Amino acid sequence: MDRITAARGGELRCKGWRQEALLRMLENVLENGENQKELTVYAALAKAARNWDSYHAIVNTLKSLEEDETLVIQSGKPIGIMRTHKYAPIVVMANCNIVGRWATSDNFYKYQEQGLIVWGGLTAAAWQYIGSQGVIQGTYEIFQSIARMHFGGSLAGKFILTAGLGGMGGAQPLAGTMAGAVILCVEVSEARIDKRIEVGYLQKKTDNLDEALQWVKEASEKKESLSVGLLGNAAEIYPELIRRGVQPDVVTDQTSAHDLMYGYIPSGYSLEKAAELRKSAPDQLQADARASIAVEVTAMLEFQRRGAIVFDNGNNIRSQAVQNGVENAFDIPVFTEAFLRPLFSRAIGPFRWVALSGDPGDIQKIDQYILKNFSDNDVVVNWISLANQYVPVEGLPARIGWFGHGDRTKLALAVNEMVKTGELSGPIAFSRDHLDAGSMTHPNIMTENMKDGSDAISDWPLLNAMINCSSMADLVAIHSGGGGYSGYMTSAGVTLVADGTADADLRLKTTLDNDTGLGVMRYADAGYEEALDEVNKKGIRRIDTTLKENE
Ligand code: NAD
């Protein structure tokens, strides 16, 4: 079968743009994905569909689906078509949700083997992944926040050590150089290093640690930004740097440490040996992976003790280390709590849009609109200017911007108008990461150490999905699984199509206001000052049950 790429241009294969848009989004996640043959988009096992039969059935159904029908998808497999109405979602899906006590990684692997389930990642099975750009800005915002909090506003001359150059981790070198730093990325697969160099995210590569450190030293001294891919295993390189007394300023890791079977490669292993043991001795492979993670996290803790800013970048590495006896692994904070919570409290998070025509000019025009009409928003203006310069087009042209409550609606309505007047060459799909204010519970990433102790309460993403369905979104998804594939997280995703119609105006305004409104309410409920301020400033209709007038 030919390699799948997203359709471009104005010709419809479906009965309307809403269906066509979702079909192109599905094709686009595969076009941008890591291993199309396996339908894998990123993070070792995050898939766009259950299997190829399911994929083809989804495509055929979207092509014949009427506007007043809804396609129901269960863990990447199309289940049926429901007669709904033209304001109902075109697609609803639930991916990898397993009941509490059964939600273990062993059960996940078993159900997956039986063909009953896939893990959807956050944006893979919900067809919202736009390539590495999606995480570039998140990573860039983390680095900028670290610069502001710890280095007087700039990372020039600072040395960031990290690992993993996969689907998500591949964004790290570009985000690092955009932030002005020198970044060393340890990666066990040469093919992954080459891929990041090919797309322009990574500058140099070597398999020689001495050479890598020399480059880092020279660039740091000259305060020049640089990214280096070092072929090696993080569980070997991190402790070696400790032994040599090399001290980075910032340390993290974005290997697939959440997955001991298909993700993290133990020290001393080649990729071939890992593949072989996956079949012949999976228990040994997982035990070795966990032991290596423990070694790596021990080194990260030592970097921290020696004064580096060390953080968990959302890959569950600390939990794996704890299970292998590194009791203080949680001395390393998670990035959301350490750097991003004030933004999420105002529902400022990873909003994104995709030019369904395939014309990069559409994204440029939206960039220009933003630079002109959001000029007082420093975070967005700074990012859009850099993204224009550094972020290559991957798949359908797309852009991400950290907008909050009200601003997302303002932008989306303006874009819908640009579609209507023909200023843009085709419709635009809006979505966001699931890791957003009101749409994710992950007690070890998004909601760790919440002020009110509500870290593990997953009512919020479920409410989010229900509200977005009621608000007429085009696609709504509920996911579970996450790190370790067990019950570590629940999240909800949403996609909307700006096709230039009045109905799209209604869908965009209602859904985007409610999506972010619930996010602000979630943080206000937990007692965050920024969220309470946002409620007052933006007139969000939160019910405060502690007020006397309720009595
Ligand atoms: P991926 O599977 O595409 O890539 C992981 C990379 O790590 C691979 O290239 C692999 O070769 C490399 N690797 C594995 N073991 C290694 C080792 N011991 N030393 C060096 N390299 C090693 O995964 P991805 O999509 O890049 O995601 C990575 C992790 O980040 C996942 O756990 C994912 O869940 C997490 N993630 C977090 C966020 C966030 O919230 N910040 C966002 C996206 C992904």
From TrEMBL:
MF annotations from Gene Ontology:
urocanate hydratase activity
Protein residues bound to NAD(+): 167-169, 187, 192, 233-234, 254-258, 264-265, 483
Query: How is this protein annotated for GO cellular component?
Result: cytoplasm
Q: What class of enzyme is it?
A: lyase
User: Could you tell me the EC number(s) of this protein?
Assistant: 4.2.1.49
**Membrane-spanning segments:** none
Tell me the keywords, alphabetical order.
Cytoplasm, Histidine metabolism, Lyase, NAD
| Primary location recorded for the protein, binned into one broad class | cytoplasm
Pfam families per the UniProt record, alphabetical: Urocanase, Urocanase_C, Urocanase_N
What protein is this chain from? Urocanate hydratase
| Catalytic activity from the UniProt record | 4-imidazolone-5-propanoate = trans-urocanate + H2O
- The Urocanase Rossmann-like domain is annotated at 131-339
Question: How many and how are cofactors bound here?
Answer: Binds 1 NAD(+) per subunit.
User: So what family is this one in?
Assistant: Belongs to the urocanase family.
Listed GO biological process terms: L-histidine catabolic process to glutamate and formamide; L-histidine catabolic process to glutamate and formate
Cofactor(s) the record lists: NAD(+)
Localization: Cytoplasm
Please give the pathway this protein is involved in: Amino-acid degradation; L-histidine degradation into L-glutamate; N-formimidoyl-L-glutamate from L-histidine: step 2/3
Q: Where is the Urocanase N-terminal domain?
A: 4-127
Q: Is NAD one of the keywords?
A: yes
What is this protein's function? Catalyzes the conversion of urocanate to 4-imidazolone-5-propionate.
- What superkingdom heads the lineage? Bacteria
- Signal peptide region: none
The UniProt record lists the Urocanase C-terminal domain at 342-536
